[in-house]
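Weekly structure sync, notes
Attendees: PL (lead), two postdocs, one rotation student
Agenda item 3: pending single-chain targets
PL asked that the sequence for the first pending target be pasted directly into the notes so everyone works from the same version. It is reproduced below exactly as submitted, 91 residues in total.
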Amino acid sequence: MKKRHKITLIIIITIIILIFLSIFIFNIIKSPRCSLNGGVWRMFSNGCGDSCVYERQTPDNPVACTMAFAPNCDCGPFRCWNSETKRCELN
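Predicted structure, written out during the meeting:
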């Protein structure tokens, strides 16, 4: 029975490591477009990040963000990431 628990634990740890590696690989792939536009690719504490859709929301058309860590381009102050054009734009 102990051997079975060890194998299960190894499988769980391997899956967790693979998830973290996939996040880092995703960031490396997406990062060049962001940095070419003057931004920095990083993890945000919500699903909106530095999104232009969120930055440009109005009271009549609010945007809901997920409360999960998500990678996105940080374009700096007064700028936001447009995920459709893959560019940093003015807010």
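Discussion points:
- Residues 2-90 form one domain.
- The chain has a mean pLDDT of 84.
Action: rotation student to compare against the earlier draft before next sync.
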